[in-house]
Amino acid sequence: MTGRVLPYDVHGDGPGRALVLHNWFGDRSTFDPLRAHLDASAGSYAFVDCRGYGEARDTEGDFTMEEVAADALAVADDLGWDSFSVIGHSMGGKAAQLMLLDAPDRVRSIVGIAPVAASGFPLDEESRQLFAGAADDPALRRVIIDHTTGGRHAGPWLDAVVDRSTSRSSAAAFRAYLDSWSGADFHERVRDNPTPVLLVVGAHDPALGAEAMEATWLRWYPNARMEVLADAGHYPPEEAPKDLARAIEAFLAA
């Protein structure tokens, strides 16, 4: 089924084109706060639902990063986009790199928002049980979200993120994507890739913050740079959407 065009919608009609891939905990609606701050006259942003999420919640698939990359390229074909940038949040950042490898002449740049590296995200046994268990247990999803945002958010905010995550993703897809984004290591294939990369991370993200970027992305992409958002953890599109929009637009304009 790889390559089918999945649900998406386009924000803006400007010349700067970007495909936008969501994180493990949410569908494309997680970018709604960000969209409110994007200049629709400057860019065209195609927000995509991965299989098992959002409007594609019941769509079957293998639920791998390779499949996400192929599906996103099919969306670009559907739009008639010959070249574009890719914005990927968390697991979406790993899929963005596979798009670059699959279509190097089409992907102009990458914006990684707290992105998973090409090497994956190794988990010890305790962490793997926690993450795997979150597929069927909303309470464990809440624990992970609270931890990766630095324990800074009140209960209603956490509950809303968990509720959206469980209602807009299938447990089977959620569980299967975990193995793909955390496990596969293809960093030798991206080493020294000259594509421009912007990494935007939250200062309160203990998992995929500045230290993780320095150990991975910034070593492998010579034209990568990083911006740290002071008021965000792992979810800048929802925690600091205005600052994130500013960083994205400045990078794409350049």
From TrEMBL:
Q: Which Gene3D superfamilies match?
A: alpha/beta hydrolase (3.40.50.1820)
**Span of domain AB hydrolase-1:** 44-241
Q: Name one Pfam family in it.
A: Abhydrolase_1
User: Which GO terms label this protein's molecular function in UniProt?
Assistant: hydrolase activity
Is Transmembrane found in the keyword set?
Answer: no
Going by the UniProt record, its keywords in alphabetical order are: Hydrolase
Question: What name appears for this protein in its UniProt entry?
Answer: Alpha/beta hydrolase
